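Work package 3, deliverable 3.1, input record:
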Amino acid sequence: MSSRTRMTLFLALTFVAQLAVPAGMIVRRELALQRGAALRFHTAPVDPYDAFRGRYIALAFNERSVPCAETFRAHQSIYVRAETGTNGFASLVEAARRPGDTGVWFRASAGYGAGEKAVSVDLPFDRFYMDETSAPQAEKLYRAINRRNRPAGEKRETWLQVRVYRGLAVPEELYVDGRPIRAALRQTK
Amino acid sequence: MGQRERNWLLGELPTWVADGVVDGLTAERLRQRYAAAPATGRSWGMIVCGVLGALLVGTGVILVLAHNWEGLSRPWRTVHSFAPLLTVQALVVLGFARGWSGTAWRETTGLLWVCAIGACIALIGQTYHLAGNTEAFLLSWVILVLPVVWLTRAMSVLAVYLALALAWASFDKLDDGVALLFWPLAAAALPVVWAAVRQNPYGQCAVLMLWAVALACTAAVGITLEKIMPGLWMVVYAGLFATLYLIGGYWGAEAPTFWQRPLHTIGSFGAVVLVYLLTFDWPWHEVGWQHLRNGSGFHPGAALFDDALALVLPLAALVLLVTAVRRRQACRIPFGLLPLVIAAGYLTAAARGWNSHIPFLLCNGYLLALGIAVLIQGVRRGHAGTVNAGMLILMGLILTRFFDSDYSFVAKGVVFIILGSLFLGANLLLARRRKEVAA
């Protein structure tokens, strides 16, 4: 094999690999969005500071602590089982090293503060990207609804819809008072 | 050599021949050598402009895409994510087909390629709202950039590749990871450096690559050490700097400027900074096997890497030192002894506790000896830069110890005057010597 043929082959392999990796990322997520089980997670107030924020809404969730039968160290990869309750929202019911045969399981990582009977979970969806104009406005709206000291009787809520397929959880839409965030933003303008 | 220097040399040749400095044959050989050489200065100007242009174009394309992002559907976003990468790949194919292989072309295309890969992954991440897992993003980027390093053999691509690998290692370590994957990643780029060095060890490409590799390795040692045994970093860094210094001395010491001796320069500078730090008391507090760290953030398995480095690097330095002595390069001994001195200090501190003062005295004595040795070498060679380096080491040590103590302002002032006079005197003496030699 001449050096030019070898070079051509290597170049072709490089191109294929460089296109295959991002394409694989897309295919797995598209499959999840098309075929995955839908779960809704109630959001929670977020930390007030994040140096990299600006083009996405930082998300936080009430569901963090999950019962488990084994111990995990922080940042360890784990699987979490979610169940949809009677109110239509998901709750995390079980964490394990490997996914079970039944139920909706998705991959997450163990956070700090892991105990023996419950583990703190870092969910694999902590941001919702928007463009640089909409993201700050959307975040303002999100934070206003998710603030800790809301007036009594105020009934506003935000949630994230997630699709889960073969252990991969992909955020689908962020809802504010039942409307997708972009629609809610248009109404507030 | 730049065009200006070459013109000067060619202009001087007739005078040199007339004065008998070189004979006619040598002058002709020099004329042929430098008249035919390509104008590298201009080429590097083109490379810098090309690299800057590539960065601006790459960033501009991403910003234009980002501005219209919200109005695009998911399939269109996907197409836009791949567009920069496909464009660069088409450019590469075009260059390959037409046989373009100039440095400016390789550096520019390579850097654009690196940006396009990063942009593609980042834009897909935004489209699908990927969680803020920076190390996963960086690792994918680094791995996909590796073939670009091999294919382009570009200095800027190698530097960016190593910087990305370092960034990944840092984020991984912050997330309680092990980050040892940095070393295979760095090793995978070494064939490119080796090829450049073999082609021309003093060429700008090889020199810049060596600077990038040596600096990246120096930083990576600090990042990837597990640090379960407190203070072991001292022995590891002592071994690393001595090894770099001795490799630089063994291979490439003939380079005319310190800039063209990256391993030698980083090794000697790093060694002086390290010993200077260790002349203080604080690094010796609670070091050694009696103070082992544990907890969820520490990985005992990865600590084996620390132990291996603490053993292999000083041993490598020792072997290189013996080789240097056999080659009658006694001038390498002062810096070559660094790992032995630091290891002796570390073992003493670990066994007897920091209040033994032996490591402290040992490092102060060693830095003093090092300063004197560098000074003597400089005077013997008539090299002002080395003399000043020796003087700086001595001044730094004496002034630091002096400020540590409770002497009066008058005493401190007198020491300042004496040291300043010595500095000026040494330079004056050297200048006079040079004049004598020239006469």
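The two ends of chain A are 65 Å apart (CA to CA).
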